[in-house]
Design goal:
- By secondary structure, this protein is an alpha/beta fold.
- Helix content is 26%, strand content 20%.
- Strands 1-2-3 form a 3-stranded parallel β-sheet, covered by helices on one side.
- The longest helix is centred in the first third of the chain and has 12 residues.
- The two termini are 18 Å apart.
- The model has no long low-confidence stretch (mean pLDDT 95).
Length: 74
Amino acid sequence: MYVVDSADEMRVQEVKDNLQELLSEELLAGVPLLVFANKQDLEMALEAPEVMEHLDLNSITTRAWNIQACSATT
């Protein structure tokens, strides 16, 4: 499970780099990935498909993955 602050577009590249590093860990090989695109209640938040594109999730082919829009306040 990986939670992304969808309202912080400035850090998307940092988040992408961090996620790629985690996915390259041998102990996590093949483990399914669930990305929560958090803070969807904020107007400036990227929508889940935009987060998916910024993180290049479609390039992940070695494991099952899904992205879910959410707001931790609800």
